[in-house]
Amino acid sequence: MKMVYGPVPSRRLGRSLGVNPIPLKTCNYSCVYCQLGRTAHVTNQRQDFFSPEEILGEIRSAIEIKDGRGDGEIDFVTFIGEGEPTLCKSIGWLIRKTREIADVPVAVDTNGSLLYREDVRNDLLQADVVMPSLDAGTAETFRKINRPHHEIGFKKVVEGMEQFRQEYAGEIWLEVMLVKGINDSEKELKAIRSRLEKIKPDRIYINVPIRPPAESWAIPPDKETIALVHAILGDGNVVDIAAEETGEFSIEGFTNPEDAILAITRRHPMREIQVIETLKKFKAGNLHDDLKRLKESGKIKKVKYREKVFWLAVEGKRGKEYE
Ligand code: SF4
Questions:
Q1: Which protein residue's CA is at the shortest distance from atom 7 of ligand 1?
Q2: Which residue, 212, 243, 213, is CA-closest to 310?
């Protein structure tokens, strides 16, 4: 399995089978809080990075494995990407085909930047849930936090989301990522609220960086600020997901522990305890040796972020402070 992974625990989606239709860190943003590191390939060009038929083949296999076991383990098939999934120009075809073969809802986790394009809006109309992000209420903050491709303007992004709301009958679960000192002032939060009033998401999720981000200074706001956020954005539909997720990582499709840990950490920094729990599932060898070998491979490294130890893939570029 290269482009389909999981199911993995998700704070919003339960057990989510992830579909990644684009290469690692290919995005039109380079968010300061991105857990994949700084964007290596900044592009705004939609294309097929991988064969759509191959991606669908992987989805089909993953669904067949689950169906064969009959344990109902998947709550959502989620197009999520190691970057921005709507940059995949066949995403509409993939969503349609997935719905034909899988009896589970389809979600798209997107930065929402391309919703100003009619082709992207049409592609996403077929999903059950679309989860865009909006982290800024003003163009200046948008540039600071999301560091977008030069073709992407704040006005265009917001208008695209408003237009999509008018055309889309499914659920919009919008996420606001809060970073201390960047978008957590009262003024900025009120500006975000005024944008949300027009986008009318069905749910608003408030999130904070909980795993090592691209820039180590991107840290969560203080607790008092989170209360302010609820007061300003909250009208009963704001859900706080700024907590550690629970649940285990699936090792399905992996025959050895190293491959499993490397594949998971490429997409998702893991707390040390999660690495140990995942290694235990292979029931072979000595955990201490496995961890040592992983570190010595030079492909993953241990970092500290906000007093917690994480393991992450070396290939994601981050600030020097992580060296
Ligand atoms: S957080 Fe998402 S939108 Fe932002 S840089 Fe990372 S992959 Fe791109």
A1: 83
A2: 212
Q: What are 156-178's pLDDT values in tens digits?
A: 999 999 999 999 999 999 999 99
Q: Which of 27, 39, 205 to mutate to test the pocket of ligand 1 (most atoms within 8 A of CB)?
A: 27
Rounded CA-CA distance 161/116 in Å is 7
The pTM of the full predicted model, rounded to 2 decimals, is 0.87
Which of 20, 22, 28, 36 has most ligand 1 atoms within 8 Å of its beta carbon, as the pocket-test mutant? 36
Q: How far is the CA of 202 from the centre of ligand 1 (A)?
A: 22
124 contacts 130 by C-beta, under 8 angstroms: yes
Count of residues in the chain: 323
| Local structure of residue 72 (DSSP, 8 states) | -
In a domain, 117, yes or no: yes
309 in a structural domain: no
Which residue's CA is minimally distant from atom 5 of ligand 1? 30
Structural domains in the chain (count)? 1
